[in-house]
Amino acid sequence: MNRPNPFASSSFFKPAASLLGSSNDSSTAAARRRSLSLDDSDTEAQRHTPEPPPSLYTMKEASSTIPPNAKDAFSEPSSLATSLRAGTSRSQSPSAKGSSAAQFEDDEEYEMRNISQSRPLVAKSNTVGERSSTQSIFQKGGVGQFLFGTVVGWRLYLALLVFWVGGCQFGTLLMNRFILWTGTYKFPYPLTLTLLQLCMTHLFLLGFAALTRGLAAPLRSIGLGAVVAPSRAYNKGNRPTRYTGGSRTKSVLTNISDWFLHGSGGIAGGGLFEYQHNTAKHVFPVAVVFLAKTVLSNISFAYAVMPMYMISRIAVVPLTLILTAVLLRQKHSIQTMSAVIISTLNLLMTSIRTGERNPWESVVAGAFSSAFVALYPILLLRSYRQLVSDLVPQGDLLSVSDSRMPAISTGTKEETRAYWRILHYTSSLTIAMLIPLLLISGELKQIHRNCYFLDVPWFWFLMSCASLGGFGVFSSFLLLVKATSPLSANFVSLPRSVFQIAVLSNFKMPAHSWVGAGLCVLSCIWYCLAKVKEGRGRGAVSGL
């Protein structure tokens, strides 16, 4: 009996060609669907995307979707291989032959589906991706999965951070202007003002940490478990300390003693006065820079009008550009450097006024504060990374903050604890270092002689509002630095400065200031587009 030659028909090579074509199409579609990013935002979101595990249902569904002609083409070489092995196996059951062909089909189709599912954010179609992301928001952990697991959600997260940090900075500056400059209750004492606001900010941190612990269950259910502050202290080796508390019905005095003695609660979980020498050693440079930039900025702002204050601090973003290239070894593109320089020059044009009073104290304090403002996000990011590495023992891995949720939506325990630790130690060390400076300055004697309104509720209301804005900036600035870069975090001050100059001038500026303001806004848009282009290029190189 003449057996037909399976290699003579062109359909034999059709499955392999179709597999190669579909693989190329899926990789091409993945490269085409890479979306825009700001700095490393998209790569950060896609690097944490969990790969879906294979399931038996997926394999069965894949085998059922193969067309009949492809199954026939696979079955022909199987029969040929059976006849060649007749010397070793005399009888071959037809069921075994069919199962081997089906298994081969399942394996090949499973590899095909793995290619398309390895990058679920960019490989699926637009309609399917949008529909699945919209539906997943209303599921358990959907908010965190949407914000940190999709490109659209990550962009929304970045936009919220930028507007939140810029708005809090503007609100704090506006409240400080009311306290230092305007009204009946003028308080021209920048060191005392700084200490009072730092103490209130520390209290807001304590309250916010307690609030996240109280809302731990709903936050974890929506996928934001990484926001919850740790409730227990961790000793060296990243193991929880032994707690000797009693039942749930403990008295208030017992809870307070837990704060001081057992190392629970507080901001970072180690009690109200948590202190570890190694952690304090890593955070100490950040606290020194934060103290210097805050005190010098308030001194400059207390003795100068707004345009002169902006001129004295005009070198913040260019210095950040230089320091990130030197300390962090970052390579900036021509578009980024051009956008930074042009935006700074246009802000200078917006701030120039004729006939304004220019005290030398404000100019010197503002010029020195520019260096510390530029250095602060760089040291903040380095200290945060050092704390994360210290919390992980050698040979261990980062542990998910909630085992029931994927790591993409909840983060890790080490990152959460490092975030709250750097807030606690920076605030505590800054307050401890500022108290001796205040005693030496002699401001307390002047306040005792001249201030008669310290018992007025309106004064403390303004102070509380300024401290609340400072708390918003202090607690979210590290998140912005992590999500973008130190340069982008400081670059937010340029459009915010243009807006606050226009608002505080009652929108009555000379013509050259309006021209500078418009060009500065256009340069900021150029910077964003340059960062978007750089993010796309890095994604293409890395294969994301």
What does the model show?
- By secondary structure, the chain is an all-alpha fold.
- The chain folds into two domains: 15-125, no CATH class; 146-234 and 258-542, no CATH class.
- Helix content is 71%, strand content 1%.
- Helix 1 (14-32) packs parallel to helix 5 (94-117) and helix 10 (190-214) packs across helix 21 (457-483).
- The longest helix has 32 residues, at 360-391.
- It starts with 13 loop residues before the first helix and ends with a helix.
What's the arrangement of secondary structure elements?
Elements: H1 14-32, H2 41-47, H3 56-64, H4 68-84, H5 94-117, H6 120-123, H7 126-137, H8 142-149, H9 151-180, H10 190-214, H11 216-221, E1 234-235, E2 239-240, H12 252-262, H13 277-302, H14 306-312, H15 316-327, H16 334-351, H17 360-391, H18 407-410, H19 413-441, H20 443-450, H21 457-483, H22 486-491, H23 493-504, H24 511-542
Antiparallel strand pairs: 1-2
List keywords for this structure.
544 residues; single chain; disordered C terminus; 2 strands; two-stranded antiparallel ribbon; 1% strand
